[in-house]
Amino acid sequence: MDDLQEKFLRKLEDESARWVEEELARRMVYAKEAIEEQVNAALPEIGPARAQNHLKKALAFAKENIRMDLELEAQTWIDEEMEKRRAANDER
User: Of 24, 51, 76, 82, which sees the most CB atoms within 10 A?
Assistant: First the structure.
């Protein structure tokens, strides 16, 4: 990979990293609402201590899974953009 391609790749990686963080924050708002709703429904049966523990673990699990999905999506986008650039360079 030459220097120009390397710079382009770094630019894409930076852009995708920002997107992942922004999208993660946005999606976590919805995940948190859904998880809190479920925990609140179970609160009378499991009690506040277990509910708090469940909430903490469920949020961490959701965040990890959402991040993995977003990182995969971002990497796919980077790969596609790099392929487009290679194809454009091959046409020259």
Answer: 51
